Amino acid sequence: MAPRVGVRGDARPTRSDFAVDRAFGPGDDNDAVYSRAAVPLVDLGLRGGVCTLLAYGQTGSGKTHTIQGVLGRLAEDVFSRQERLEEGAGRGRISLHVSFYELLGDEVTDLLGGAGDGGGRRVEVMEDAFGAINTRGVTELAVESPEQFRELCDSALSHRRTQATFRNDSSSRSHAVCAVRVSNGLLREAEDGRLFVVDLAGSESAADSQFHDRELVRETKLINRSLSSLKDCIRNRALSALNPGRFYHVPYRLSKLTLLLKDAFEVESHRHCKTVVVACVSPSVADVAMTLGTLRYAVPIKVGQMNRDRLPPNPKNPATWSNAELRRWVDKTSRGAVSADTLCPHESGMQLLRVPETEFIRRVLEGSGKAFGEKRAKAFYTSLWKLLIDARTAERKAKLKPKVPNRYKDVEKLAAEWLEELDKNQGEAINVLREQEWEQRTKQRVEEMEQKQKRLQANKENEHE
Ligand SMILES: Nc1ncnc2c1ncn2[C@@H]1O[C@H](COP(=O)(O)OP(=O)(O)O)[C@@H](O)[C@H]1O
Ligand SMILES: [Mg+2]
């Protein structure tokens, strides 16, 4: 309910409805939030999926409160599940690695590095040629117990830069991202599971920033920009899931936040992913406008829950090959000279493509005895890559093709018909012209003959006289 003042000054409540999956009221604590919102994520994350939990809302609405609660319970839960998963398969096969990022504008810092309070190390977030996100300069720690996990989270969150604002005495003006990597030693082909728990910077209205100095206003701008690119990414991802036949651009390169979370809303993702957005709202009537803004931001995200299937297998695209297909290619292309057991003992096509060039070449040299020199090994690497690039170009072209409206096809057909008609008509026209010409010439000739005859007649008459 939002109060609206009419022209006569009478205030009336207006009602807005939003469809969400779950609503938590004042009676629900963080246990309720965790068990209903985060548990499905943990399940999937431990099995190799990409899971993200985002807390969004205005400053002071309880985002940090929620995230701290979730992280605390997550530690306990992850370890008890991990034990269950490992039962019978020997211990220590599933390992957890935690890293913490703080994002302020386009500056990313490491929250586990120690120094803290703005002194954290700079982190570079980059995308490699395969579209995978790599980070440099971040501390990634292996965690062995729930206590250690909780300690790490507490220490990282305490290192966040905070600032007193109009809304909150210790407002976090940055996004904090807790990234947990789950590597599964039981399934070597499986990619690492990812769990992202994100405490977004508070969305602020113009009214909130009225007492800000210049630096704070600049920060507010950066915050709002990254939140809006996050929204664009999620919205376009949702649209793309709704209309699988159309091409939508997901602008994840617009901010470091979306770049870091790219896996979560990648359209072409062949991995299972799940994203939960917790929209935090304040119950105060003074915050109604911000509450509406928060809900308008968060509600469209629900559409994007649909996930695409795996990349369809394409014999021309090595990124979709299984290990068996890859081995067949290696045998065929090298005419049996390179041992697939050495080059790709268990890798899928995608995994081999991710192997760095030097490592690839080393394996080819090792697996081919003396048959392959470094040059040939490099050419072998390039030929696999060429296949990928050709396949990608072809796929992209095929995707863009339907963009040319069908009506152009109709025009093309019509034009061809017209040309044909013209050709036929031209032939006929020429015939008509020829006939006319022939008729005219005949006429001329007849006239000439007649005149000649007349002249001859006249001559004869003259002679007689
Ligand atoms: N659901 C809740 N129950 C109890 N206290 C809460 C709840 N949500 C927020 N708070 C309190 O409100 C204050 C502001 O919350 P905080 O999480 O820091 O907001 P934000 O991170 O969104 O700026 C904190 O003191 C926090 O403990
Ligand atoms: Mg906060």
Notes on the protein architecture:
- This protein has 465 residues and is of the alpha+beta class.
- It has two domains: 283 residues, Kinesin motor domain (Kinesin, 3-Layer(aba) Sandwich); 83 residues.
- Helix content is 46%, strand content 15%.
- The chain contains twelve helices and 13 strands.
- Strands 3, 4, 5, 8, 11, 12 and 13 form a seven-stranded mixed β-sheet that branches. A two-stranded antiparallel sheet has the order 1-2. It has a two-stranded antiparallel sheet with strand order 6-7.
- Helix 10 packs across helix 11.
- The chain starts with a strand and ends with a helix.
- About 1% of the residues have low confidence.
List the helices and strands and how they pair.
Layout: E1 2-5, E2 11-14, H1 30-46, E3 50-57, H2 63-86, E4 94-104, E5 107-110, E6 124-127, E7 133-136, E8 141-143, H3 146-158, E9 162-163, E10 171-172, E11 175-184, E12 193-199, H4 214-242, H5 256-260, E13 273-280, H6 288-298, H7 323-333, H8 340-343, H9 349-353, H10 357-367, H11 374-400, H12 406-464
Parallel strand pairs: 3-12, 3-13
Antiparallel strand pairs: 1-2, 4-5, 4-8, 4-11, 6-7, 9-10, 11-12
Helix pairs in contact: 1-2, 2-3, 10-11
